[in-house]
Every structure is written in C-alpha cells, then in structure tokens.
C-alpha cells in the first residue's frame, strides 16, 4: 500500500477511485499531486482486478488548475529541463477505462485532466474553462488540442482566448461531457457507469478504448482498417466465446477477463 498525501485512493469491487484531496487549494495540481495521480492510475492499471478507474474531486472543485503558486517562480529553463507536465502522458497511456466525475470547478489543468479521461460525467454544478490566458500563459496539459477535438474550433477559441467558464449544460451541448447529472447523484451515477464498464471483458474494454482513440489520431480508412483487424482479434478471447454463448443460452456472461 502506497501512502498518498494529495489524493485518496479507494476501491469498490472492480472499480478504482482516485479522489483529488487538496481542499485548501481547490485541488490545484501541484507536482506532488500529479505524481500521485499518475502512480495511482498506473497501479490500478497493473491490477487485473480493476476494470475501471474513476477520478474525482470535491463538491466545490474537481481541480482549479495547475498550481499557480508552485509555477510562479519557475523560469523557462526550469520548465524545459524538467519537461513540466510531460508526466501526464503516462496517465493517457493507462489502458483501463477512466471516468472523470466533475463537480464544481474544472479549470485549466483541471479541465485538461478531465479531458484526458475516457468519459466525463458532470454534475449540474460543474464549471469548465481554460483560463490560462488570464495569467499570460496558454493551456499546457493538452487543453488546446483535446478541447478543440471535443468541442470544435469555434468554442475552443472562445474559451481559450477569453478564459471564460462554461457551465455543465453548455459543456454537454458542446460535446465535452458524456452526461450531466444532479450534483447530489454524481458519485452514484458515476460508480454505476464504472461498475458496468468493469463488469465487461477487460481485454475487450482495452481494445474498444484503443479503437475509439484511434479515431482522433488517424484517417477514416486507417481507423476502420484498425478497427476491423482488432474486431477479428477479439475472436481469440475466451470472453468472446463466453459472451456469445451466454447470449445464445439466454444467460448472463461470466467474463474471466482473458
Ligand atoms: N493554483 C494555486 N492555488 C489555487 C489555484 C491554483 N490554480 N486555484 C485556487 N487556488 C487557491 C487560492 O489561491 C486560495 O488559496 P488561499 O486561501 O491561500 O488564498 C484557495 O485556493 C481558494 O481559492 P479562492 O479564494 O480563489 O476561491 P474562489 O471561490 O474565490 O475562486 C476560482 C475560485 C474561480 C476557481 C479561483 O480560485 C481561480 O480563479 N483559480 C485559478 C484558476 C486558474 O487560473 N486556473 C488555471 C491555472 S494555470 C494552468 O492550469 C496551466 C495548465 O494548462 C496546466
């Protein structure tokens, strides 16, 4: 068991939960918190007993961005030499499906962390934004790229150039979030979705996630080819035999995650 200071890590059945826990700084992402989130996500990813990972914050804030107080004194050389924020690439390499459950502020790096997750479920209280421009910087954990892919150029430019916040309703309408739910049911609904995903064949969820992500990285023809070959490959899974047999026999499948 690893001791964490900035996050709380729990499991519920096959679901791993990472709760950002720096309440005094509205869960601002400092270096220590970033390392803990990445370590916890990688530990869950290495555990075959975990089939979905939930990342959440508090009711008031998912995360109010990268830690401005920590960054303030840094120079260009510091940023370049440490390759500040590059560690987050490892969060994106996690193969287990990830869900962000967002209540309150998801600003700057907070919005970017939510966008690095595979699914984003928002409380009706959620507020999204990339306010970096108000500090004289720009998004640094993929915001300009992932927001643009999620909501298109028009709204991404609007948010990134003005730094304004977008509420949950606008975020859903724009395609940034999968679902909006009442704030007091956010965790319940997210855990239900996560439990459902975690009940599926783990290797099938790995390749499903890979196939969807390929859509953002390649041409349609290449993506369709990748999907078809990967679909063929699922026929090697024992879980595929079980899933189809269970359907024919009108019973629930018992996936063994292999
Ligand atoms: N970094 C460090 N500390 C932060 C923080 C951040 N991003 N966001 C909030 N805090 C701290 C505040 O400094 C304050 O601490 P003190 O009590 O010690 O002063 C505490 O959290 C509570 O915040 P507020 O008093 O400001 O709370 P509020 O309710 O009045 O306002 C807010 C809430 C609108 C979210 C406001 O805190 C805010 O604007 N935060 C900064 C948002 C921001 O600019 N984020 C982008 C950061 S840069 C970035 O993320 C770069 C990147 O791409 C990775």
TrEMBL record:
Looking up InterPro entries in the UniProt record yields:
ClpP/crotonase-like_dom_sf, Enoyl-CoA_hyd/isom_CS, Enoyl-CoA_hydra/iso, Enoyl-CoA_hydra_C
EC class (word): lyase
Q: Does the keyword Manganese apply?
A: no
Its UniProt entry gives the catalysed reaction(s) as: a 4-saturated-(3S)-3-hydroxyacyl-CoA = a (3E)-enoyl-CoA + H2O; a (3S)-3-hydroxyacyl-CoA = a (2E)-enoyl-CoA + H2O
Offer one example of a GO biological process linked to this entry.
fatty acid beta-oxidation
Q: What is its EC number?
A: 4.2.1.17
Q: What are the GO MF terms of this UniProt record? A: enoyl-CoA hydratase activity
Concerning CDD domains, the annotation shows: crotonase-like
Which domain of life does the protein's organism represent?
Bacteria
A Pfam family annotated for this UniProt entry: ECH_1
Q: Which keywords does the record carry?
A: Fatty acid metabolism, Lipid metabolism, Lyase
Explain the purpose of this protein. Answer: Could possibly oxidize fatty acids using specific components.
**Per the similarity annotation, which family is this?**
Belongs to the enoyl-CoA hydratase/isomerase family.
| Descriptive protein name | Probable enoyl-CoA hydratase echA8
Organism of origin: Natronoglycomyces albus
């Amino acid at each position: 068991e690893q001791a964490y200071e900035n996050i709380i890590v729990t499991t519920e059945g096959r679901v791993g939960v990472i709760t950002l826990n720096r309440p005094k700084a509205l869960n601002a992402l400092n270096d220590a918190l970033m390392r803990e989130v990445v370590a916890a996500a990688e530990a869950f990813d290495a555990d075959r007993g975990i089939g979905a990972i939930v990342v959440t914050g508090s009711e008031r804030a998912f995360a109010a961005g990268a830690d401005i107080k920590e960054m303030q004194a840094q120079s260009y050389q510091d940023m370049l030499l440490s390759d500040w924020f590059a560690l987050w690439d490892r969060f994106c390499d996690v193969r287990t499906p990830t869900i962000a459950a967002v209540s309150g502020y998801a600003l700057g790096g907070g919005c970017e962390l939510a966008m690095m997750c595979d699914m984003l479920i928002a409380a009706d209280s959620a507020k999204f934004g990339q306010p970096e421009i108000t500090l004289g910087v720009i998004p640094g954990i993929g915001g300009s790229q992932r927001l643009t892919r999620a909501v298109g150029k028009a709204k991404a430019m609007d948010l990134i150039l003005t730094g304004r916040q977008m509420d949950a309703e606008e975020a859903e309408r724009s395609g940034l979030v999968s679902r909006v739910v009442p704030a007091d049911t956010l965790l319940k609904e997210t855990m239900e979705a996560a439990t459902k995903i975690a009940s599926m064949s783990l290797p099938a969820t790995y390749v499903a996630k890979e196939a969807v992500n390929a859509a953002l990285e390649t041409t349609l023809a290449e993506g369709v080819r990748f999907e078809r070959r990967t679909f063929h490959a699922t026929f090697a899974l024992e879980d595929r035999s079980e899933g189809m047999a269970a359907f024919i026999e009108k019973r629930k499948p018992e996936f063994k995650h292999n």
